[in-house]
């Protein structure tokens, strides 16, 4: 019954964690680049500007795997929301929604929805 590590990583509940880690990692990279420049006697404001310009693209390269997980999580979330939106629009038009299109996490079972109509 346990999920594989790939399934756990791609679960929608991990999107917030992955996004937070990715943002923090990029900020740390900017701070490291700026810190190195400050040690070389570059003014702090200039070091932060250069750290941002250098750190952000460098973060895309260094944290590619984490970026991929965040992108996949956002895509899955978007797909889920699009399916829910399409289902809601179909229900508002009065169309019956096929059972395959119903979301597995629906709160009301399909039998109960049919009885309500």
UniProtKB/TrEMBL annotation:
<protein>
    <recommendedName>
        <fullName>DUF4229 domain-containing protein</fullName>
    </recommendedName>
</protein>
<keyword id="KW-0812">Transmembrane</keyword>
<feature type="region of interest" description="Disordered">
    <location>
        <begin position="90"/>
        <end position="117"/>
    </location>
</feature>
<keyword id="KW-1133">Transmembrane helix</keyword>
<feature type="transmembrane region" description="Helical">
    <location>
        <begin position="21"/>
        <end position="39"/>
    </location>
</feature>
<dbReference type="Pfam" id="PF14012">
    <property type="entry name" value="DUF4229"/>
</dbReference>
<feature type="transmembrane region" description="Helical">
    <location>
        <begin position="45"/>
        <end position="63"/>
    </location>
</feature>
<keyword id="KW-0472">Membrane</keyword>
<feature type="compositionally biased region" description="Acidic residues">
    <location>
        <begin position="97"/>
        <end position="106"/>
    </location>
</feature>
<dbReference type="InterPro" id="IPR025323">
    <property type="entry name" value="DUF4229"/>
</dbReference>
